[in-house]
Amino acid sequence: MKPSERRKARRLAVQAIYSWQLSGNNIADVEHEFLTEQSVDGVDITYFRELLGGVATKKSQIDELITPFLTRPMDEVDPVEKAIVRLATYELTFRKDVPYKVAINEAIELAKAFGAEDGHKFVNGILDKLVARTK
C-alpha cells in the first residue's frame, strides 16, 4: 500500500462523513453510495471503510474528545471541518500505527482542499491541543 492510497481513502472518507452528517442516512448506505458512485481508483478501500465506520461508531467518544477544545457548540462547527476533525481524531485515538504528525498534516491538507478559507487553522488548533493532552 502506498501513502497516496491512504491519502485518497481519507479524502473520500471525509466526503462520506460529511454526507452522513448532513443526511443522517445509515452509514452502510453512505458507504455503498460512495463506493459505487465515486471513483475509487487508487483508493485504499479497506482503510476508507475503517475510517468511515470508525467515525460513525465512535462518534460520541470522538466528540467528547473534541468538545473541550471548541470555542463554540459542536452544532455550530462547519460541517466540513467537523468531518475532518472527527476523522483525524479517530486516527489519533484509534490508529496508533498512524504517526500523529501524519494525521494532523493530512487533516490540514483536507481542510485546505475542502474547508473554509481559514478552516485549516481551526483544524490544526483543535488537533494540536488534542495531541498535547494525550501525550
From TrEMBL:
The keyword GTP-binding does not apply. Keywords: RNA-binding, Transcription, Transcription antitermination, Transcription regulation. The keyword RNA-binding applies. Signal peptide: none annotated. Gene3D superfamilies: NusB-like. Residues 7-130 form the NusB/RsmB/TIM44 domain. It comes from the Bacteria. Pfam families: NusB (PF01029). Transmembrane segments: none annotated. InterPro entries: NusB-like_sf, NusB_fam, NusB_RsmB_TIM44. Involved in transcription antitermination. Required for transcription of ribosomal RNA (rRNA) genes. Binds specifically to the boxA antiterminator sequence of the ribosomal RNA (rrn) operons. Belongs to the NusB family. This is Transcription antitermination protein NusB. It comes from Shewanella youngdeokensis. The lineage of its organism: Bacteria, Pseudomonadati, Pseudomonadota, Gammaproteobacteria, Alteromonadales.
